Amino acid sequence: MAEVTLKDVALASGCSIATVSRVLAGTRPVGAETARTVREAAERLGYRPNHVARALRSRSTGTVGLVLPQITNPFFPTLVRELEHALHAEGRAVLLADCDDDPVTEAARIAALLSRRVDALLLIPVDELRSREAVAAAAAQVPLVLLDRGCGHGVADSVAVDNAAGMALVLEHLAATGRRRPCFIGAAGTASAAVERHAAYEAGAAALDPEAPGRSALGDFSVEWGRAAVDRLWPSRPDAVICANDLIAAGASQRLRQLGADVPGEVAVTGFDDIPLAGLADPALTTVRQPVGELAAEAARLLARRPAGGDPGPRRTVRLAPELVVRASSAPGPQPLDRTRSASKV
After folding, report:
1. Model confidence over 27-64: pLDDT tens digits?
2. Which residues of 8-34 are buried (b: 16+ CB within 10 A; e: fewer)?
């Protein structure tokens, strides 16, 4: 079948091609009756807009490229969903690319999206240092916003949760429930979220125990690493295992139970992100909830404020407040024995 054109819709509706174009593109106000007539004719004929031709005319593809470190991390699909909703509301489509936690692949995915003439880029960088060159080059060409992680000051607009505030909420909660010997399981490397969460633990844990900052193990953001790290740290008998994300916490909790530890009676476990798994775990996981909807909405706003053409104006950095979600995995531990009271009863 021949492609239905604007001219065909114009003939069927009795309107000019210019009027039909205005109605279907929504670029200028048109009378309600005229708009209804045009839309009915377009639907009857099966008209579909030619986005390629429109892009050639407007020099805008209406697409945003989104590059993720690893789609298998359950936090990212939730964020992708919110981003797609926020951008769809603005009439923009999302092209998704995964780089499997490899900065070289990440640079190639960015280049591929730019070659497809995306209007803008959203990026969760693999590594604060190794991703910086490719990110900076892309930000000089199109509006670009970093999500969840950064690439250093002034490289690009960015929006993320306040990781230090989130870790402070965890430490305050554990102190209030009587925990005094925490340890930390996180990710190695220079991804900014990993670095910030570990640094916040080291800064705050010393108030509970001067030796607590030394009880850390760094690997990656996986269930498998959570299990392996417990084997390293459990001999020091911590009473709380603070994890840099929920996947690590799930692995840590599983391994602790295998070792015969009582969670949370003997040792509390906490995570970060509040992925769906957190509420389904047994015991349900205390964690720091990231405001995913706000992250997506703010990213869309930052993109809209940044004009096309690689505007080198001041970069904006937005940090959003986290929320502590307290569940069964950090219920108060056993209270210290009051030896004076016990002796008086003998």
Report:
1. 567 888 888 999 899 888 888 776 555 544 545 678 99
2. bbbebbebeeebbbbbbeeeeebeeeb
